[in-house]
Amino acid sequence: MLEPPPRSMTSRLATWLSGNSRNSQMQPVNAAGGAFDIVPLPLFHWSLRFAALAKQHSPTWLADVVAQIEPHAGSILTAALTIVLIAFLTSTIIKRRKESARPVSVAVPHAVQAGWNGMVLPYPTVSSKAHPRLITCYDPSTAQHISDIQADDASAIFEKVRRAQAAQRAWGDSEFARRRRVLRTIKQWLANDMEIVVKVACRDTGKTAVDALLGEILTTFSKLDWLIGNTEAVLKTEVRPSNLLLAHKRCKVFHRPLGVVAACVSWNYPVHNLISPAIAALAAGNSVVVKVSEQVAWSSRYILTALQACLVACGESPDLVQVVVCYPGDAEALTANPAIKHMTFIGSETVAKLVAQSAAKAMIPTCMELGGADPMIILENVDLKYFAPTWMRGTFGAAGQNCIGAERFIVSSKIVDKFIALMAPRIEALKPGSFLADTPFSDSKDVKQAGDHVEHVDIGPLITGARIEALEAIIADAVKAGARVIIGGKRYAHPKHAHGHYFQPTLIVDIKPDMTIAQEELFAPIFRVMSFDSLDDAIALANGTRYGLGSSVFGSNKKQCMYVASKLDAGMCNINDFACGYLNQGLPFGGVKASGYGRFAGPEGLRALTSPKATTEDIFFSAIRTAIPPPLDYPLTNPTNAWSFAQGLGNFVGGSLSQKARGIFALIRGSL
């Protein structure tokens, strides 16, 4: 007989778990000296009952084995559970270490270092007639020159696509653990260098640091977290339901990488708009070529350097991510390149049509995320003071240069005067300026010494001065048609930054649906107000443009809010909030009508970057296989029997009970 082990705490715990203790309960003493009852786990209790039955009804030799093991069953089971737990924890630790982020160091760009002071350009623009192959990079808030970058020509673009294609061959077969390691490394770099990245975005677009963090950093973190946590589950092989005809088959869908995918992205979020399609492509097993806007060529080069450094730190090829910056004349080397297997476009409706036509030449599927004139519907029972900050940020964040910005406020006529009176002083108090040059965030000694006397900066400039005259003309036309400008409406001449691209924070009211200002996406710090008398009137106003990207409904009556939301022609809607859905990257992002088609983000966007392959196999691989019935085998020696058999098969599969019965007889008859 085996000697029982000492009565350690482990063995005593095992005895209790087995339900075999003296009182079938254990009375552990708590810290206060009292006792509390614990009910034994029945699993181990019944395991011993099973052992007793086995001993009673089994052969003698097996009964002897059971008799020796029975006294130690609890300890054995506890030891087994301990081994399983240790194995699980060890596996988890090894897996986490395998996927853990690698350290990355990226040099700080010169234009965000302390003491940097670029030359002010008197006529700032990205292109130069004297140097047609150069892109001039400058800060639109101060017009300070940052650098000049060589624009890619067609041959350079072809070479970048070729390199991405070569790198993808090995990456396409990578395990999800490898992909997660890269994503975790990118996330760790972004967390470590967050302030630097924010300053880079501010320098290249002029936006404030707050806008950069909210719109660039938080959204990118959300995307990374979702991809790290969900990619493997979303792209795992699926087993699809079968039917009667294929009852002996297992039907699967494999989501395979496409190869090289591309993205043509806008300038308004230079960090997120580059990283987002890149990490989605990498998570799906693709390589990626991102064409960025000339307006943000400088910041894009820095982001590319960081992404490639993260890849190298993980032992992967830096060629998996490529960035193209070129003038429109060379873009077709990417948009019509047959090596590109999918293209995401973020930009204007006009350019989207050109890209779609170009992509069609190579049969490249596209996802189009275009502009919107997003409606904010304000019901009469809304809490005006509570939501006022939300409406301000919805319109003036990023100086209004946001595809899902709050473009049109459609307000109940019963409260529209109160609404205007509440918003007007807030809008009037807004201060345009350069967040890097004029605030304590700056490294300027003069700014830091000013302390509490430093001027605040709420919004930055427009990305280019080319649109200012057009905005002024739209507002002037609206005023002629009966609209009223309460605040702003024109170019803002900044006292310190005379060459910056500033537009006055604007409040314009009494807008009618037939005005141009009610129909167009302005992409500017302009707060537009319309009014409605009924819910259906509000819905008609909201749906009365060619756009359908985002939307919001604000009110205290849930039933009314849900009714309005259900009737809006938009790809997204937020109840009592503004654009918050984008912070959940598990949701699909995209619009309808002239706001585009297709979706990125969420399972829908991730799967669009893969090729679904439908596969069938025999469940009992060699035992039951599909066989062509003799009546249907070529040549059809007896067409009558062939038709009788086929007709019987149709009745059996799709008919009623009586038809199924007749179908069975027809199958039998056709087989004779």
From TrEMBL:
<keyword id="KW-0560">Oxidoreductase</keyword>
<dbReference type="InterPro" id="IPR016161">
    <property type="entry name" value="Ald_DH/histidinol_DH"/>
</dbReference>
<dbReference type="Pfam" id="PF00171">
    <property type="entry name" value="Aldedh"/>
</dbReference>
<comment type="similarity">
    <text>Belongs to the aldehyde dehydrogenase family.</text>
</comment>
<feature type="domain" description="Aldehyde dehydrogenase">
    <location>
        <begin position="133"/>
        <end position="614"/>
    </location>
</feature>
<dbReference type="InterPro" id="IPR016162">
    <property type="entry name" value="Ald_DH_N"/>
</dbReference>
<protein>
    <submittedName>
        <fullName>Vacuolar H-ATPase V1 sector, subunit G</fullName>
    </submittedName>
</protein>
<dbReference type="InterPro" id="IPR016163">
    <property type="entry name" value="Ald_DH_C"/>
</dbReference>
<dbReference type="GO" id="GO:0016620">
    <property type="term" value="F:oxidoreductase activity, acting on the aldehyde or oxo group of donors, NAD or NADP as acceptor"/>
</dbReference>
<dbReference type="InterPro" id="IPR015590">
    <property type="entry name" value="Aldehyde_DH_dom"/>
</dbReference>
<dbReference type="InterPro" id="IPR016160">
    <property type="entry name" value="Ald_DH_CS_CYS"/>
</dbReference>
